[in-house]
Amino acid sequence: MSMVYPHISTSADLLKSTVRLDELFPFLKEQGATSVAIVNTKLYGILPFWEACRRADIHGVIGLSVFIEYEEQHFPVVLYAQTNKGYDNLLKISSALSTRDKEAIPEQWLKAYREGLICIIPNKAEWLMTDRSLVVEYIKNLFGKAAFGSVERPGGVVSPYESAFIELCEKIEIPIIASHEIRYMHQQDAFAYEVASAIGQGVKMNDPERQKPEHTNAYVPSQQEFLSWFEDRNEWIQQTADVLKSCGVTIPMNRQLLPVYPLSEQMDKATYIAQLCKVGLEERVPDFSKKYQERLNYELSIIAKMGFIDYFLIVADFMKYAKDQDIMTGPGRGSSASSLVAYSLKITDVDPIEHGLLFERFLNPERITLPDIDIDFADHRRHEVVEYVAQKYGAVRTAQIITFGTLSAKAVARDTARVFGFEAEELEAISKLISNRPGTTLRSALKESTKFNDWIIEREERKSWFKTALKLEGLPRHASTHAAGVILSPTPLVNHVPIEKGHEGIYLTQWPMQELEAIGLLKMDFLGLRNLTILEQIRSLIYWDTKKRFHYSSIPLEDAKTFKLLATGDTTGVFQLESDGMRHALQQIQPTAFGDIVAVNALYRPGPMEFIPLYARRKHGQETVKYVHPILEPILRETYGVIVYQEQIMHIAAKMAGFSLGEADLLRRAVSKKKREILDEEREHFVQGAKAKGFTEAEAAEVYDLIVRFADYGFPKSHAVAYSMISYQLSYMKAHYPVYFYTSLLTNSAGNAEKTKQLMQEIKEKKIPLLPPSVQKSRHTFSVEDGQIRFGLNAVKGVPGSTIKALLTAREEGPFKSLFNIAERISALHFNRKSFEPLIKAGALDEFGHDRGVVLASLDSAIKHAELVKPNDEPGLFDDMGASFMKPKYTKASEMPESLKLEFEKEVLGFYLSKHPIEREKENRQKSYDALKSLKSKRDRELVKVLGVIEDIKRIRTKKGDAMAFLTLMDETGPASVTLFPVEYAKFNLLLEPHATLEIQGLVENRNHKTAIICKNIET
């Protein structure tokens, strides 16, 4: 008798099962399984299951576990897709339940979507608590011969409901199948499954509210076991096999489900897109040459031939919407910047001819793949564009893409420990003992740390915890939304993929990106980029301040001031160029042209970064530029003989071996895989092509070897050019509009104390005036005021957004006159100590002419005054008379000492605004000290003497067990790292306290573009 498995829940069902496909299918093959059904509560995991069935040559059945509604009660059933129509209906049922917050399928839905489905009624308690013959009869009437009852005997145990259930099925004349619900692989996995279920429920194992499994035998039985459970009912097993075999579904794969652009005008789309391109290109390149026209015609012919006209029109449409709404868009991303059509339609801002970009790198006529136009938007407005697409092209045709978070090593360790009921200290210990490094597993963490091993074996419960966590590691844990991916379908999505409720009214697919692409849906990436938000805000700040509109397209790409800024590595806040290593690369290369920025963006990656010094030496004439063959010179001249871009490899193949650019792209892709047989095959192809063009075999082989060497290093020039434009624009704004630049950066660094401190330090060095927060003049965020930066009220820690809103609203009616005037004008809900004490400490009320100590002492009086004037926030007794006659007075108090003012500023702003206390300390000591900021300009091993405050202390032990420490020291110019090796640590350990002011002598150490002080002596 053939072996079948009619009900397998897989781990894709998010903590409702621990069955992994890679473990399941080898076992199924071993047992001689002929049919197997996946039955999850959503249609998660369907395609991987289907593919696993295909590879194992096992007949697969798609099922769905749902509840049906009958007379306001819910009953569990399993629905199998028997036909393609049934599969389509399963997509719709799962989508309807997941988008409309329904727990069960209403009668009208079941009637509408029953075609092609088999309905299985399980012998569960819900069916037998009272007489259920009416609901069973209802199902029989709906499904006819496609209705079945199912009996389970897990582990050979007969349910107490079985006899009654058989009687019910016989009464209604419904055939019975033998079934077995599987939720884990092996019998010994039952406990781990319960733990996974508890994680999903968010409860502990000992929680009385925890939903426990019906039985502990939901494992995958062997053929012998399953047959033995039903040895008295062989006809049920045969019925099961017949039911599963009757399910013949084909899931359509590898189609091109491209979206359709709604064209109302009476013209074909090829003519329409050509007209749009002509108009757009004339705007961007007036009097364009024949070269542009030929390139445009060529691209349009390829796009039409590949069937992608609608796609380009749709992208152009939502890009036009974004620009019409003043939403900042990126100049391009990835290979799409290689397209002149995209440039003409204003999808990108990169002229591919000017920058030598190849269309075939984007769309290769010799390799039919879906186009990939990824778009960057200002991150705070990305959602507006997605909403526009859904509104215009149909909400049922538009969805964002699901992703699944998994139980990584640290996540599974903490989740399992929480379910076990571990104490908070144990959870903290787990976090410290397991690395955050990508790729870390529980086994690797155990191998790397004897501490971790010792901690586990301290208690038996921890051993059980670790064993359980190992079984759950890597399982899908939760669903979330892909950061960028959007799907647009030519017909309602439920015709192709199940969907569920998403965010902000946009649906979410139940399948992740790879599965959507496998069935032929086109993914578009709508990416939110913070740097575009910064550029958008800079533009807005300029307009608010000057009433002049700034256009980034007007920025010249040959600006000397911008290149000077880049050459000094002054790139804080500049996209892609902020890291210490990138600053060092810029200082080496000393950019003098836009192409240098493109090159450094492409080179600064593991592997090719080794060529940065070579590029720099050749650029500055310190080394002769050499070419393997003279034919390479025009191709590699711009990068001084170094192959930097993938496009250069394509040019070489085309020029030397006569490849078409499409063939050259295929060569680039093939060679980068580094497979020996492919390398040899392509070598022959390249050499023969070169010989046909008159080159010797030795010359061709030498150039081919060069291509192979650099194939891994090559970076798409199109992407490098597009992203370098953002880098350049930000650099230009920093060089020419520093006040607006830093104002926007500060606004976008809210909540990041370290970044804000770094920016404040730079602002101070550049002598840009920084005005304190003010209840009279500050906006919600940082702003520009008379060429100076004004603190935003939201930068003051502890002040609720609602209080800020209340202040700004009240201020619209006129400036505040005093603390008490504020109390009279805003709601008592917002006027309280918690909200206003931070504002006073930050100096936001200094303009009223009273010392901060006095204002702080008067706060309670002001709160009482507010309660008197507006009791319970209702109109007060004195409203008609005005409250001015009451004339409340400030409380007498001593002036706040400067040291306390500074400490309060540090507390509520995150740094010292008025003055750094170390400046006063230096004045008192009357000694000469090296500024911490100056250390980078010092020679290696140069002796320095510094004075600073300890911001952070990290004590460690060497491999020999000796104690040492790393300090973060801060003075008025910024931070520096200080290293105390064991000898110095032993001498000065007692002086190392947080916030201690220390005089340190030591040697400068420059390593990996980072500077530190090796401590030799400390004085207090």
From TrEMBL:
DNA-binding: present as a keyword of the record?
no
> OB domain spans which residues?
944-1019
Which species is the source of this protein?
Answer: Planococcus halocryophilus
Q: What does this protein do?
A: DNA polymerase III is a complex, multichain enzyme responsible for most of the replicative synthesis in bacteria. This DNA polymerase also exhibits 3' to 5' exonuclease activity. The alpha chain is the DNA polymerase.
Could you tell me which residue ranges the DNA polymerase helix-hairpin-helix motif domain spans?
Answer: 768-852
Alphabetical GO biological process terms: DNA replication
Q: What is its EC number?
A: 2.7.7.7
- List where this protein forms a coiled coil: none
The record's section on InterPro entries has: DNA_pol3_alpha_NTPase_dom, DNA_pol3_alpha_thumb_dom, DNA_pol3_finger, DnaE2/DnaE/PolC, DNAPol_HHH, NA-bd_OB_tRNA, PHP_dom
Cleaved signal peptide residues: none
- Name of the featured protein: DNA-directed DNA polymerase
Query: Which PANTHER family does this entry report, sorted A to Z?
Result: DNA POLYMERASE III SUBUNIT ALPHA
Q: What is the lineage of its organism?
A: Bacteria, Bacillati, Bacillota, Bacilli, Bacillales
- DNA polymerase III alpha subunit finger domain location is 531-694
List each copy of the PHP domain by range.
7-122
Q: Hey, which family's this protein in? A: Belongs to the DNA polymerase type-C family. DnaE subfamily.
Q: Give a Gene Ontology cellular component term annotated to this protein.
A: cytoplasm
Task: Please state where this protein is localized.
Answer: Cytoplasm
